[in-house]
Amino acid sequence: NITMSLSEAEVQSARGAWEKIYVDAEDNGTTVLVRMFTEHPDTKSYFTHFKGMDSAEEMKQSDQVRGHGKKVFSAINDMVQHLDNSEAFLGIVTPLGKKHATQLKIDPKNFRIICDLILQLMEEKFGADCKASFEKVTNEICTHLNNIYKEEGW
Question: Where is the signal peptide (predicted)?
Answer without folding.
Answer: none
